[in-house]
């Protein structure tokens, strides 16, 4: 039932970041933090996990106050995100075989 879901991507903030990155060549740290409405430290933690998985690359330009950090999806990241989305769709579109005992129906 949950085959194909990637636990690294599945965390809501990481999934949202991957969605933004999938629609851009690169995205700045500041834009991601503002768009996702999360703190810089929270974003840093999530992006580090995605980088460690090989799903994003990080580019740092400059030093000090004028420094800019940008993120881009890697080819592996794009494949993993596409597969995760397909797994989510399959999970959501799956019709239960027995609804007689289901709570909330």
TrEMBL record:
Record InterPro entries: ArsR-like_HTH, HTH_ArsR_DNA-bd_dom, WH-like_DNA-bd_sf, WH_DNA-bd_dom, WH_DNA-bd_sf
Organism listed in the record: Pseudonocardia nematodicida
SUPFAM superfamilies the UniProt entry points to: Winged helix' DNA-binding domain (SSF46785)
Protein name: Transcriptional regulator
PANTHER family: BSL7504 PROTEIN
HTH arsR-type domain ranges (all copies): 8-94
């Amino acid at each position: 039932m949950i085959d194909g879901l990637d636990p690294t991507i599945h965390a809501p903030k990481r999934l949202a970041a991957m969605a933004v990155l999938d629609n851009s060549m690169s995205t700045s740290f500041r834009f991601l933090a503002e768009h996702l409405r999360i703190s810089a430290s929270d974003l840093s933690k999530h992006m580090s996990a995605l980088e460690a998985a090989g799903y994003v690359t990080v580019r740092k330009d400059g030093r000090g106050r004028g420094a800019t950090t940008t993120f881009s999806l890697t080819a592996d990241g794009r494949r993993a995100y596409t597969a995760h989305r397909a797994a989510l769709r399959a999970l959501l579109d799956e019709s239960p075989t027995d609804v007689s005992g289901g709570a909330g129906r």
